[in-house]
Amino acid sequence: MSDASFDSQLRENEAEFGDYFALLKPRVMTLVVFTAFVGLLAAPVAVHPFVGFCAILFIAVGGGASGALNMWYDADIDAVMKRTAKRPIPAGRVSREEALAIGLTLSVFACVFLGLATNWLAAGLLAFTIFFYVVIYTMWLKRATPQNIVIGGAAGAFPPMIGWAAATGDISTASVLMFCLTFLWTPPHFWALALFMRSDYDVAKVPMLTVTHGRPATRAHILGYTVLLAAFAVGLGFTQVGGPIYIATALVLNALFLRGAWQIWRRDEVACEADNFKVERSFFKLSLLYLFAHFGAILVEAGLDRMGAW
Prior knowledge:
Blueprint: H1 3-13, H2 17-22, H3 26-42, H4 49-73, H5 75-78, H6 96-117, H7 120-141, H8 148-157, H9 159-168, H10 173-196, H11 198-204, H12 209-212, H13 214-236, H14 244-265, H15 269-274, H16 278-309
Helix pairs in contact: 3-4, 3-9, 3-16, 4-6, 4-7, 4-9, 6-7, 7-8, 7-9, 8-10, 9-10, 10-13, 10-16, 13-14, 14-16
């Protein structure tokens, strides 16, 4: 290889700021920030705007740290899956050692400063969330059980509890149900994706339910979890963070979600292959709206409560 070709290859693989930012999984971080923000504002205790900003910032950094540590450990399977092959580590732009150092540093920074800015219960919940996502889910369950996404979903469900704890210093029924909303949403959301992305998990040898038990069993699980999710989602409307706007939103969205899960359950492989998993893809897109709309309704209710208090 000529010197010019070698230099060109180095420039192609040289990491840029965007590569390091991609380590933090910004799309996932968006959900973390939003649900934590809703938990913070829905809490019955007013928080100084600067303290609230710091709380959300450190929660976001903690979520990003989890993403970096996940990419560090999962670099081997990311390299063989189509949807992850272009991530910074398998693409050769960031080393695993760099990702590990960034993840650990940001984890300590986020937890310590969240504790100093708010309280140590919130910091402890954030530290446990990072530990749960990296150790319990990524290192252990993801490659060990088809229920990986169920148990691992707890990590993504903690942010509203952390936001609530940052404001109040405690845990309540409302914050636990906000946790349950995200926790029970995660399996049907990811299993719908796995139905039309099964080949990725086959190649990576990740024991997703579609791989170990097949698509018919996965469809039945999606329906079961959606029924359970609907009950918790509507029930949340009768806590202190609920109200008529939230209840109306929950009733409409859960009716649509249950309808979609029922349609998926009734599908067979011939129909799926014939229309390229059209129903499953639509359900997955609806699942993205589902969670943001529920937490958005909680945010609106919190805003109306604050206006009423004035």
